[in-house]
Write a structure and sequence with these properties.
The chain is of the alpha+beta class. The chain has 4 helices and 6 strands; from the N terminus they run αββββαββαα. A 4-stranded antiparallel beta sheet has the order 3-4-6-5, with helices on one face. It has a two-stranded antiparallel ribbon with strand order 1-2. Helix 1 packs parallel to helix 4 and helix 3 packs antiparallel against helix 4.
């Protein structure tokens, strides 16, 4: 029973960590990354479809993303979706390929993006602590119902705390790595 609770908590914490990495991958760093366009959806025959399902997206060099739509008629639709996104990018089409140059970031913009990364990290730390709180309340409830002993409750809380500390450290490391990536030119 206790092991299942710990395993469930760890699985939820791992998912939070994966979600954080996914969120941070969307932040612009000044380098071309196909993950930058992951959240963009285009109108494909009346359906909002992810960009990567109507085209091939590659980072052709450190400052350029190339998009090759599977249908030539999608070029203006894709360009419009990129322009309307909150990324501040200006796509340029050349026959059947759309090139998206990634402008270099100003120092001020880098600081803003770093702040966003830190805030994202803090919100995920709160999520991890909420998982800990839920597990601890389950342990208290089980102890109250005499399903586990006080020692088992204390032991379970210690294990949950160690797990929480490890994931909080992991989040801090991921955010620090992202900040370094953002701040390097």
């Amino acid at each position: 029973m206790l092991d299942e609770l710990i395993a469930d908590a760890e699985m939820r914490m791992k998912k939070s960590l994966a979600n954080l990495q996914n969120e941070l991958s969307k932040l612009r760093t000044g380098r071309a990354s196909t993950a930058l366009l992951d959240h963009i959806r285009v109108d494909y025959y009346g359906t909002a479809t992810p960009l990567n399902q109507v085209s091939t997206i590659t980072a052709s060099d450190a400052r350029t993303i190339s998009i090759t739509p599977w249908e030539k008629s999608m070029i203006p639709v894709i360009e419009k979706a990129i322009i309307e996104s909150d990324l501040g990018l200006n796509p340029m089409s050349a026959s059947e390929i759309i090139r998206v140059p990634i402008p270099t970031l100003t120092e001020e913009r880098r600081l803003e993006i770093s702040k966003v990364a830190r805030a994202e990290g803090e919100s995920f730390k709160v999520a991890i602590r909420n998982i800990r709180r839920n597990c601890n309340s389950d342990l208290k409830e089980w102890q109250k119902l005499k399903e586990i002993t006080e020692d088992e409750e204390r032991s379970g809380q210690d294990r949950i705390q160690k797990l929480t500390d490890r994931y909080i450290e992991d989040i801090s490391a991921i955010v620090k790595e992202k900040e370094t990536e953002i701040m390097t030119v």
